[in-house]
Design a protein that fits this description.
This protein is 32% helix and 24% strand. It is of the alpha/beta class. The structure holds 5'-O-(acetylsulfamoyl)adenosine. It is an enzyme of class 6 (ligase).
Length: 635
């Protein structure tokens, strides 16, 4: 029996049982056999969910880049580590070997050091999907700096909030970014953000689009001349297993984004182990995850997981629709992709287009398909399975979160029989629980409740940067001794899990988590707005879209409502980013509220979803007349 590479269902059950019966022994074996450590741990796990405090591989020392790079040089030096496919199909793809990647990472690490970055410093990375993005993460890890990647679609304000929250010392960015037919002026966004950031000492600039930028004397530097001069070797810094590796922000149900802190040893072990098994990655495979490295999926399953396994990982700079809707399928054909890991929102968008776009491409290299980010609906699942997988490539519907660091519930391809819309079985070492309204665990099968995890796993986030109380309150206070995920789920008659969606005020739009509160804050800043509430409603491509109910200070008939809607959306784009724009805006005289003043979002959700036959319990509703008015004018 192999712990590391599971190949049969029976083996899965055996290994799972072992991982639950003696988690410490199990993870110790995995850690010992498959990674290089500079110093061994003194204790595998200590934990207390009440504090909460979780430590894996305490006392151990390592550097994750030695596991992702150095150790592969002898055996895989000339194999492609990163395969970069640019935005435009006319620009040549780049095959960066492990040898070349090693040198690039070492050089960048030396540049960071020369620019004053030391172990423990936070470095903000605001880059498009170009190789320098992955290299920057690894360069930080090489010298023990904590990276904080901010998705390069976020606005200046959102960027500034994140830089300030973590007191970053440096930003690594580029002159611009290509996204389909558009060019974005990233440097200008950084300049605007930095007007309200005091901790940034240096800005390093990657040249990508060659658009005109202004450099601030003493602060901004082009990175290429520095790389040219830098030495090709940088001694890796010894990190404690529990030293932070990175911070990554995720939206919460209250205003401020949460800086989830991931540490080094456990994160490495779990992302590498899940990558190997959940994708059944073999020597020579070409694995492509279409996420952006700005999200956790990119951190764990474009960079760290694949590289820790000596794999070939594809980075795609562009979008599925440019130059046309064949782009994804052409990339699969061109690079003979064996693994495609994408999001339901992309699948739905592509399924709407002419099937010719898919059929004209040779997809025979594909072996495994993945889905992540939101529940995959039945129709999208079948379209993916039939047209992309040709009924021969299993779909791994992987459920997990920024907070979990790695995949938690998922089939293992060729091992776990799949079932449309089901993430199926808990991965090795993961102990889920479903809880009812009275905080009792629902035992047995065919039950539905709130999804919790009962036992620590190696890649769980350890805290929220600068706010451990919020970490405890958000994840460990709803149910004693459990991690609460914020999701609802059901367990079917054989024990398969189906994730039903968020149970809090987070809405997933095109796979992006959006908290309602920060969007409402942005709307309310408009001078004409008195109050607002936003909810999600089903959208055939995005999964959910946003519906805003807005109360104006003065509801004059003479107003230009269309302009006002545009201004509100612009305000949202400026404060958060274009992904948070509202699809529908309804101006309303009031919002349905309870007697204690809480907005009854449930009612607003029903109206937005055109599902008003039964509004449920409205006995606590203070102002029923408002509900009728809103329903009569719903969009
Ligand atoms: C990896 C990622 C986390 C939230 C999570 C869920 C939802 C993610 C699935 C899913 C159903 C899935 N991290 N979610 N994967 N829901 N099936 N396979 O997406 O932090 O950005 O989002 O996404 O609600 O709590 S995330």
């Amino acid at each position: 029996m192999s712990n590391y590479h599971i190949k049969h269902l029976e083996e899965y059950f055996q290994v799972y049982r072992k991982s639950v019966r003696d988690p410490e022994r199990f993870w110790e074996e995995v850690a010992e056999e498959h990674f290089v450590w500079r110093k061994r741990w003194s204790n595998v796990l200590s934990w207390d969910f009440a504090k909460p405090e979780v430590k894996w591989f305490e006392g151990a020392e390592l550097n994750i880049t030695e596991n992702c790079l150095d150790r592969h040089l002898r055996t895989h030096g000339e194999q492609t580590a990163i395969l970069f496919e640019p935005n435009s199909p006319d620009e040549e793809a780049q095959h960066i070997t492990y040898n070349a990647l090693f040198e690039k990472v070492n050089k960048m690490a030396n540049v960071l050091k020369a620019q004053g970055i030391e172990k423990g410093d936070r470095v903000c990375i605001y880059l498009p999907m170009i190789p320098e993005l992955a290299i920057a993460l690894l360069a930080c890890a090489r010298i023990g700096a904590v990276h904080s990647v901010v998705f390069a679609g976020f606005s200046a304000k959102a960027l500034a909030t994140r830089i300030n929250d973590a007191s970053c010392k440096m930003v690594i960015t580029s002159d611009g970014s290509y996204r389909g037919a558009k060019t974005l002026d990233l440097k200008a966004i950084v300049d605007e953000a930095l007007l309200s950031c005091e901790t940034i000492e240096k800005v390093l600039l990657v040249e990508r689009t060659k658009n005109k930028v202004t450099l601030k004397e003493g602060r901004d530097l082009w990175i290429q001349p520095l790389l040219d001069e830098a030495d090709g070797f940088c001694e890796a810094v010894s990190m404690n297993a529990e030293d932070p590796l990175f911070i990554l922000y995720t939206s919460g149900s209250t205003g401020k984004p949460k800086g989830m802190v991931h540490t080094t040893g456990g994160y490495m072990v779990y992302t590498a182990y899940t990558f190997k098994n959940i994708f059944q990655y073999r020597e020579g495979d070409i694995y492509w995850c279409t996420a952006d490295i700005g999200w956790i999926t990119g951190h764990s399953y474009i960079v760290y997981g694949p590289l820790a396994n000596g794999g070939t990982t594809v980075m795609f700079e562009g979008v599925p629709s440019y130059p046309d809707f064949s782009r994804f399928w052409e990339i699969v054909e061109k690079h003979k992709i064996t693994h495609l890991y994408t999001a339901p929102t992309a699948i739905r968008a592509l399924a709407k287009e002419n099937i010719e776009y898919v059929e004209k491409c040779d997809l025979s290299s594909l072996k495994v398909l993945g889905s992540v980010g939101e529940p995959i609906n039945e129709e999208a699942w079948h379209w993916y399975n039939d047209n992309v997988g040709k009924n021969k490539s299993p779909i791994v519907d992987t459920w997990w979160q920024t907070e979990t660091g790695g995949i938690m519930i998922s089939p293992i391809p060729f091992v776990t029989p799949t079932k449309p819309t089901y993430a199926t079985l808990p991965f090795i070492g993961i102990q889920p629980a479903l809880m009812d309204e009275n905080a009792q665990e629902l035992k047995g099968n065919q039950v539905e409740g709130r999804l919790c995890i009962k036992y620590p796993w190696p890649s769980m986030a350890r805290t929220i940067w600068g706010d451990h109380d919020r970490y405890r309150d958000t994840y460990f206070s709803a149910y004693a001794n459990m991690y609460f995920t914020g999701d609802g789920a059901m367990r079917d008659e054989v024990g398969y899990y189906r994730i039903t969606g968020r149970v809090d005020d987070v809405i997933i739009v095109s796979g992006h988590n959006l908290g309602t509160a920060p969007i409402e804050d942005a709307i309310n800043e408009h001078q004409a707005v008195a109050e607002s509430a936003i909810v999600g409603f089903p959208h055939e491509v995005k999964g959910n879209a946003l519906y805003g109910y807005v109360i104006l200070k003065e509801y004059g008939e003479s107003r230009n409502f269309d302009n006002l809607k545009k201004e509100i959306n612009q305000q949202i784009a400026d404060k958060i980013g274009p992904i948070a724009k509202l699809d529908k805006i309804q101006f309303v005289p009031g919002l349905p509220k309870t007697r204690s003043g809480k907005i009854m979002r449930r009612i607003l959700r029903k109206i937005a979803s055109k599902d008003t036959s039964n509004l449920g319990d409205t006995s606590t509703l203070l102002n029923p007349e408002v509900v009728k008015e809103i329903m009569d004018n719903a969009l």
